[in-house]
Amino acid sequence: MKKNSRTSHVAVKAGMWYLVCNFILQGISFLTAPFFNRILTETEIGLYSNIISWVSIITVIVTLDLHSSVNNAKFDYKDKEFDAYISSILILGTGITLIVFIFALFSSDAIESLLNVNTKYIYIIFVYLLVSPAVSILLAKYRAFIQYKETIILTTVSTMANVIVSVVLVMVMDNKLDARIYGTYIPGYIISVIIYVVLLRKSRDLKVEYCKYAVKISAPLAVHLLSGTILSSSDRIMITNICGAEKNALYSVAYLFATVLLLIWSSVNGAWAPWCFEQFDSNRFNKVKAPSLFILFGFGFLCLIVVLLAPEGLYILGGKNYMSAAYVVPPIMCGCIAIAAYSMYVNVEQFFKKQIFVAIGTGVAALINIGLNWILIPVFGYVASAYTTFIGYIVLFAFHYVITRFVMHKKVYNNILIIIYIISFSILFICIGFIYDFILIRFIISLLIMALLFIFVLKGRKGNFNN
Known about the structure:
Shape: globular
Number of domains: 1
């Protein structure tokens, strides 16, 4: 009991530190966003967003999301076996990337036409992807063992290197789009190479057994992640193709809010999931009910603040030209809370190694999203993509709820309250869009919500999840 109590306390502490760290790091990113959005033209911002969207899709394809198996491997492999497991999936990921890279070299013209991305950027992306899994694997290892200090140091160094190099290059180079791309991937490449070498020094093994284990767990999750990435990125790709890069710039700047919040959510869930796995492993399912609601509602209040201050936030991020995108923010934030909710159920499916359901659900949601985008964007413009994406995430939540509750027969969470959480916050967010002209009302509400969020954070810092 004492060990479990200590583990719970460390997990809570880790989650709070991840949250604080990401607030600081994303605060730095937000401070530099106005700089980039004013230096680069709307067309350049739109093209950069299109490139980043494709990179997120290609990354999943070539890496197979192998790092997602580390949480499970922690329980099945110990000590030197675990180090050998890490080296095996690291080498496997590089091998897969190299094969795809060679194919890309012989098909560069076709790929450039398909992706609407310059060939030189495609080469830069693949060189980066050859080694970049080293960072995600090491972070997965740190999070699996709740080593939050190491996680924070690595993410801080990576983020700061990216920001500093990007700012310097944009200031000194004439081609601003080149500068933005180089600043994004060169620092990451250097850090990845260093970590790659460090990991291989511990073990250089490449065992087929470990590779099979990783692929069995990660491949379905990779399909899920790929579908999820398509679900979150296809809107920007389709807006670029249908409405033009300028409209994609508007949408992409508005989507920055979601990017920040989902990174925060990823960090919190990165600490939450290992703790959940510990509870599931000991059949203490009731232990996660109260903490899950605490985390979800805390995240909901954070999204609420963003919705309330969206017009001012867009003015700071890009200026008056971007304020018209404020009405995209409420449905985007609705999607964020739906993501948080369905992530809870995905954790259950992942622990019980039912990843096939994760893959199927996300694939269906992605197809629905693409279909709705194809129909609605030409009619209603880029704003429609925010609502279609939200619909996709609602479908995804419903799917995982049904699978966990009625197929796997696992009653882990307070399902009624989670459904109320999604409905209430979604209605609230959409309604706030109608009072964007009333600045004083929005500011007063924002202050009240911030005070309530502070109470939530204070409660979590003390570890009073079950009170």
